[in-house]
Structure formats: C-alpha cells, structure tokens
Amino acid sequence: MPRSLSTTLSFWVSAGVVAHTLWTSAAPAMVYPLYAHEWNLTPTVTTAIFAIYPIVVVAILVLFGDLSDFIGRRTTMLLGLGSSIIGVFLFVIAPNVATLFVGRVFMGIGVGLSAGPSTAALQEFAGSGGVTKASSTTIIAQAIGFSCALIVGGFLVQYAPLPSRLTFMVLLVLLLGLFAVSWFLPENRRTNTGRWHPKIPGVQREIRTPFIASSIAVMTAYTHGVIITSLGAQIAKELVQSSNIFVNGSVLALFAISLGIAGLFASRLTGIKAVVWGSAASIIGMFFLAAAIAQHTLVFFIPATSISGVGYALMVYGGLAIINPVTPENVRGGVMSALYLFAYLFTGLLAVALGKVATEVSMAVAALIGAPVMIGLCAIVIALVVRLPRTPALQIKSLKSQRA
C-alpha cells in the first residue's frame, strides 16, 4: 500500500465518502416499518428518528463547517467516517428505540463532518477545470449511496435473516473498508492562518448572491429526502398498498437510479439551466405523487420517484455548478458546509412537521402537504436562478479582480 494515494485514486475515494453520506442517511429507510411494528411506534417517532439526523448534521455544520479548511480534508473526513461507523454499529446492536436515536446522532455527526470536505476534495482532486467533473461525480456518488441503501436494504429486509440488523452489518463492513482506504489520502492542509475555533461557516460578500441561489436549490433537492427516506416506505406500504418491502425499496430506488442517470447527462447543461429543468421535473414528480396517493397505485408512484430523482440530480448539480467556480479554494470547505447546512436544517424541521401530521391526521395528508411545499420551493428556486448572470467565466474574472 503506497504511503499516500495518487490524485486519481484520491478523487474516487473522496467520491466514496460522498456516497457514504447518502447511504448512511437512507440506511434505515426500509427498516422504519419494522421498527414501527415491533416496538409499536407512531409515525411521529419514526420520523423523529429520521429528523434527529439532519438536525445533528446542522449543528455540526454550524460549529465545525470550516474545520477542514484548517486541519485538512483527510483528517476531517476520517473523523466523520469514524463517527458514522459508531452510529451504524449502534443500529446493528440496537435493543430499543433510544439506541436508534443515539445511533442517528453519531450518523449525523459523521455526515456533518464529512459532507463538505468530501465535496470540496472532489473539486480539488479533479484538477484545474474540473468543476463539471466534480459536480457530476458528486451526483453520481450520491445516487449510488442512495440506491444501495434502498435496494440492498429492501432485499435484506424482505428475504434475508435478521431483517432489522443485516443491512446495517453490510454497511458497517463497507464503512470500515472505506475508512482504511481513506487513511492513505494525501493531507491537503489549507493555508489559513490563525487558530481555528467553532463558528458558523462564513460566505464572502462577493459570492453571496450565487450562494443564496445555489443553497436554496440544493435545499429544495434535499427536501425529496423527507418524502423518499422518511415517509417513502410507509407511503408505499400504507397508501399504495404494496406489502413487499423489496419491491417498495426497488421502487424508491428508482429515485436514486434516475438521479444517477441524470447526473451523467447534467454536465451538458449550465448550472442555471440545470436548476430550472430540475425544478420543473420536481414539480411534475409531485403531481404524480399526489395521483399515486389518490389512486393507491404503483402506476403513478413509479414515475413520481423516477421524475423526482431527475429533479434532485439537476438541482444539486446546478447548485454546485453555480457556486463552485466562484468560491476561493482556501474557504471552499466552509462554503460547501454552509450550503449543506441550509439543506439539512430545512429537511429536519419538515420531517418533524410531516411526521406530526401523519400521526395526528393521516399519512395521506402528510404526503399531500409535502408535495405543495416542494412545488412552492421549486418556484422560488426558478425565480432566483433566472436572475443570476449567465456568464460564469465573467463572474470568476470579476471576482479575481476584486480580490487582487
């Protein structure tokens, strides 16, 4: 084993760290109905198990968002992977719901520490002019993590022994392997001076306009996660009336599969066009979701998840393509963390709210509230990005002259 990995291998290992953030996030998705049945949990509790994760992610991003700009991407990603490993292990041995909450806390710490640095590392290991490669690889890595969580999880829950444990055992082994390989990443310590201290990640004034547009685009894309990973399995089982967990997981995984396919072609679009088309696709997906709930059929649920996946991919790609070129390298970790901060904060709060509605009213009402929320956010995103300058190269040149 070499002392440190090559730039090419480092790029793909960083992509693996990105993939782990979505796999870890969605890992319990297909197991929520089992927990609800075995421990007699209400939708409020199951969505709270989901929601504690993004809330912890937000707390970590607020306090440690720019940590990798000071101590390096490698060290910060290793800390994140170590925490994710602890969280997944707690799910493997969980004797009660309290242990699940603690496990989700550790998962949130792990993703909060590694999400920004891994995204920034992709940009840096991609080399000069690698904005497109880094952005599209981020999408594809997320798609792989998401789809594996749902397909592998659904298969193991439906057909394998230890249905509420084995999926986490598999993930634990993979995370241990990823941690071992990540140990050999080159340490790219930033040149920031001064002592690091916990603080909210800052965004320079000259990039705030594109940052606002890109962060709201990514936040809107991540809102899909509330419906797919928090409520999706229960929507499929209770509203669409499909009892096969593997089938439900495969249908939900169409979200991630279409996400990955769209990520392959997203590089043909500018950041602004990608966000606009992604918002439009998400709106269409929400109409199909409403139809699936009304008609209790997979015929509409399948296009709902597939089209929503395209929307997610294009919005995240577009958001990253808008902000990456204009972000100075020495603050990129903090800016990426700030971008994810808004996404996780909103999704955590929305998950709690929809879970409460599902408990007090019905799952159908909760899902039908989530759909118009998504549509409204998409409209806001379109209004913001169409006002951005359409010449990123000129933006970059202008920013460089301002910093000179």
TrEMBL record:
Record's keyword terms, sorted: Cell membrane, Membrane, Transmembrane, Transmembrane helix, Transport
Keyword Transport: yes
GO cellular component term, pick one: plasma membrane
Membrane spanning residue stretches: 43-64, 76-95, 101-122, 134-160, 166-186, 207-233, 245-267, 274-294, 300-323, 335-355, 361-386
InterPro entries associated with the record: MFS, MFS_dom, MFS_trans_sf, MFS_Transporters
GO MF assignments: transmembrane transporter activity
Keyword Membrane: yes
Subcellular location: Cell membrane
Lineage top rank: taxon: Bacteria
Predominant subcellular localization, coarse grouping: membrane
Membrane topology: Multi-pass membrane protein
Major facilitator superfamily (MFS) profile domain sequence ranges: 9-404
PANTHER family membership: MAJOR FACILITATOR SUPERFAMILY MFS_1 (PTHR23517:SF13), RESISTANCE PROTEIN MDTM, PUTATIVE-RELATED-RELATED (PTHR23517)
Designated name of the protein: Putative MFS family arabinose efflux permease
Organism: Neorhizobium alkalisoli
